[in-house]
Amino acid sequence: MNMSAGFKQPPVSLNPEGTERKVGFELEFTGVEMDEAAGILQSLYGGSVNKLSTYEVEVNNSRFGTFKLELDAQILRDKKYENLLRSLGVNVSGIQNIESIEDSLKNLASSVVPFEIVTPPIPLSSMHEMNNLVDELRKRKVKGTGSSFVYAFGLHLNPEVPDLSSGSILAHLKAYVLLDPWIRRDSRINLSRRLTPYINEYEEKYILHILDPGYAPSIETLIVDYFRFGNSRNRPLDLLPLFMHINNELTSSLIEETITSSRPAYHYRLPNCSLEDENWTLAQEWNRWVLVEIMASDEKMLDRYARAWLRLKRETLVGFENKWIELTDRWVDEID
User: Fold this and answer.
1) 61: helix, coil or strand?
2) 91-101: per-residue pLDDT in tens?
3) How is 183-197 classified by DSSP, letter by letter?
């Protein structure tokens, strides 16, 4: 598949309700003020700007819905720094220039913490319109993943699921773990991101568990097993928002961390957000995800490659990953 081509359509374009699937984008970057970024969104997609706080701005009622902009630092967004000030005996309510303090904190944090644009769900047929946003940000010389060693900035994709069944979710999970080594190599995941815990690979014991030909769990078992094997939201394919959507009560009982939202979508969080690179595109990253959906949609092919992975794992003492990537290369070359 040509990754540099336009946005490829996945094999299933409709959601479980029979309407066109959508995908949300989350772009992390720095180098532009939040108000200016909000103005870009408003000029491109319409709507009205609503400043919620020093760290959060929304563009409401655009033709796609609500765009959110925020400083990607929960301690600031949730005003947790106020607790620290109170513990030091500072009367926060009596501070006259609290906005000035927040501006200073924002300026300090933005040197290492990215701003984030969270788009509303965009119809598959309209994904190309997000290219205009990338172009406008580049005109402002924004800084992306490759701008500094410390910028572990990411692009998150949230494709709406084509099917909520355990069989479909397991198929996508299997396809992802089979393709993960190839995707990491092909997309050249930045070292700064690889050194963070946010996109940790699934552990081998879990991969062996889900690739077992006899593994056919109910949705409840699939959810329980996900956490039983030590998975969290810090996976390149994060299933927590989807599991929260499917069974909020069960999922909430199995996690300690706070999850901000549930949604009927896969949370694919591996890619760089290389806005500083003129050759980088959203379509490249999306098209790598489409490979996952292509493999997941073909039951016989998925089973064949899962068995091949298990066989190669048993038979290889050294160089497994390189051999597996070579095998995956041949499959990718056949797709198009």
Assistant:
1) coil
2) 445 545 545 44
3) HHHHHT--HHHHTSS
Contacts of 171 (CB under 8 A, 6+ apart): 296, 297, 299, 302
* Beta strand residue intervals within 166-258, DSSP E: 237-238
Q: Which of 247, 273, 251 has the alpha carbon at shortest distance from 114?
A: 273
What is the Cα 178 distance to its own chain's centre? 18
Number of CB atoms found within 10 A of residue 16's CB: 14
Max Cα separation, the chain?
69
CB neighbour list of residue 253: distance below 8 Å, 6 or more residues apart? none
In whole angstroms, give the CA distance from residue 96 to residue 235: 43
The structural domains of the chain, with segments of one domain joined by +, span 22-30+114-334
In whole angstroms, what is the distance from residue 139 CA to residue 155 CA? 19
* Measured distance CA(244)–CA(223) in Å, rounded: 10
Q: How far apart are CA 45 and CA 129, in angstroms?
A: 9
Stretch 202-214: mean pLDDT, rounded?
A: 97
What tens digit of pLDDT does each residue of 55-74 get?
A: 899 999 999 999 999 986 44
Beta strands 115-118 and 67-71, pairing class: antiparallel
In order of 137, 190, 235, 278, the CA distances from 199 in angstroms are: 25, 11, 5, 24
